[in-house]
Design brief:
single chain; 299 residues; alpha/beta; Rossmann fold; 5-stranded parallel sheet; 5 strands; 8% strand; disordered N terminus
């Protein structure tokens, strides 16, 4: 593959990452933003699950000398500058299919919720990339995760309320800590509840964050085309598929049945059993008062 993205020029200035705990509305936001003429997107790449694990192995090797013998691993052969350079070259190859067809002024939107756990690696290798953290009330996330575990998400979604809360906090806490080290103007937190209540206003805010023109009429059209009702019917902004998966005839992402559930705020009160609500409360008490920053006060 001939990738026209030199490693030395890879800064991430034409990249936007949407991260967040699964079932926080990241796909909805992706479809809304991908309606913009200057934003391209694709299916979740999980690219930093590949890159990030290598970086963490490197950090573990250089921070954990073995038995006083000077350590083990690639750090016995490479210095950090050399290792980072190799990782950037590797990253440029993996990003090639996403970026090589972008026109000047266009942005590629990469949405992998679990990249919430790799924000430090994203910032290290792509310092000019922008990051949007989609965050939702943990109780509604729990209800949505449990519903997914009983249907289309039974291979990955937690089946217990306590596990769901811990998954939410793992992602939210890691982004919260990593955001302290993101350069000004590169990070934006978006609340699901705000997007649900006033999508046009929030999308206008995001357009300013991305420095992209977007008229009120264009935004209103996008919101209508990507409503919960439209998405349940398989409509909305298409998310393309290429590569090996694209060889098999499916050119766009098809959400599984019940992927778009109630799309409501505060439905956890009806969806969770009393025992599940108890387990949620017990886990939230362990987290402490920090979780209340993300609580929907109206639910």
């Amino acid at each position: 593959m001939n990738v026209a993205i030199p490693e030395a020029g890879l800064t991430g200035d034409n990249l936007l990452f949407i991260v967040g705990c699964p079932r926080s509305g990241t796909t909805w936001l992706q479809r809304l933003l991908a309606s913009h003429d200057l934003i391209k997107t694709g299916q979740e790449s999980r690219i930093f699950e590949y890159i990030g694990s290598q970086f963490r192995n490197w950090q573990q090797d250089i921070n954990s000398p073995v038995y006083g013998r000077g350590g083990m691993g690639l750090a016995c052969y490479l210095n950090e500058e050399e290792f980072v350079s190799i990782q950037k070259k590797y990253l440029s190859l993996l990003l090639g299919p996403m970026l090589q067809d972008l026109q000047p002024g266009q942005i590629f939107l990469e949405k992998t919720p679990e990249h919430a756990q790799f924000v430090p690696e994203i910032v290290r290798l792509l310092p000019e990339a922008k990051i949007i953290h989609m965050v939702r009330d943990p109780r509604d996330v729990t209800a949505s995760l449990l519903a997914a575990s009983a249907s289309w998400g039974n291979r990955w979604a937690p089946r217990r309320a306590s596990q769901a809360i811990r998954l939410w906090w793992l992602n939210v806490n890691r982004v919260e800590l990593a955001a302290l080290h993101v350069a000004p103007g590169k990070f934006l937190e978006v609340r699901y509840e705000d997007l649900h209540r006033d999508p046009s206003s929030i999308l206008a805010d995001i357009a300013r964050f991305l420095k992209l023109p977007w008229t009120d009429l264009e935004i209103a059209t996008v919101v209508k085309a990507n409503s919960a009702e439209e998405l349940r019917m398989g409509k909305g902004t298409p998310i393309p598929i290429h590569g090996e998966h694209g060889k098999h005839g499916q050119q766009t992402v098809l959400d599984p049945e019940n992927f778009v559930r109630k799309a409501q705020v505060g439905s956890w009160r009806r969806d969770l059993t009393w025992f599940q609500r108890l387990r949620v409360w017990q886990e939230l008490r362990k987290i402490g008062p920090r979780w209340k920053r993300y609580a929907n006060k109206l639910s």
